[in-house]
Amino acid sequence: MRILPLLLLPCLLAATSALGQVPASEDTTKNEPVPVVILVIDSMTGNGIPDASMLLGFGYESESYITDTLGRVSLSLPAGTWRWVEVAKPGFLPIHTELEVEEHESAAVRVALLDTARSAVIGRVTDAQTGNPAPAVGLKFDLPGRWADVLHDGSFGIALPPGTYQAIFTSPYYFSVSVTVEVLPETASRLDIGLDPVQDCVEPVEVRDEKPVFIPRSLH
Question: Considering all CA atoms of the chain, what is the largest pairwise distance in Å, rounded to the nearest integer?
């Protein structure tokens, strides 16, 4: 009997959940929408930031919004934890945060952005081979409690005191990299990096008709 080769989905698809595309709550579709106001402010002055862009994940989809002249976005959301909230504005460091919405209670949430004129590290993480944003990347610094979120487009930003640090990039799909970065006073230091993918993400385990059958390691 002829056995056809089977090609399972590449294990890189497992990174989808790491991009924040996670259903916010199992019960969100059962709850009545709750009024929510998100206020985006300057972390130093406390003033609202107009025309800031906001990306909010709804399960496996997303919607984009723009803050009004006072820095506000008004929404109606089901109760739950919304884990994919990204806020950005030119001249400020982008931020990735969560939004907790309580059932039957209106909510007012503040999101503070850091002016890039202050000492910070900003940059983008990509796949060294394709140039696309690298998925599921963690970034930490050799300073207690200092780590940065790498957003779905590969960008990141973190405020740090002036000094010299080791930036450590890790991912289950790429080789870890440690890079020295110097942070100057009142300067946003740029750090763009390409990560080399781990080549043995999938391995041949069985052969039929001289063609390999691939099974992701994660299924072993």
Answer: 74
Residue 178's identity, in one-letter code, is: S
DSSP 52: -
- Overall number of domains in the chain: 2
How many CA atoms lie within 13 Å of 8's alpha carbon, on the beta-carbon side? 18
CATH number of the domain enclosing 32: 2.60.40.10
Q: How many helices (H) and strands (E) does the chain have?
A: 0, 16
Secondary structure class of 29 (helix, strand, coil): helix
Question: For each of the chain's 220 residues, which pLDDT tens digit applies?
Answer: 444 443 333 443 344 334 344 444 444 445 688 898 999 988 767 899 999 999 887 666 778 999 999 999 998 888 887 767 888 898 887 777 777 788 877 888 888 787 776 788 888 999 999 999 898 899 999 877 678 878 777 888 887 888 899 999 999 999 999 999 998 887 888 899 999 999 755 444 444 444 333 333 333 3
pTM exceeds cut of 0.90? no
Residues 6+ apart with CB under 8 A from 45: none
CB 183 within 8 A of CB 123: no
Q: Is residue 31 included in any domain, yes or no?
A: yes
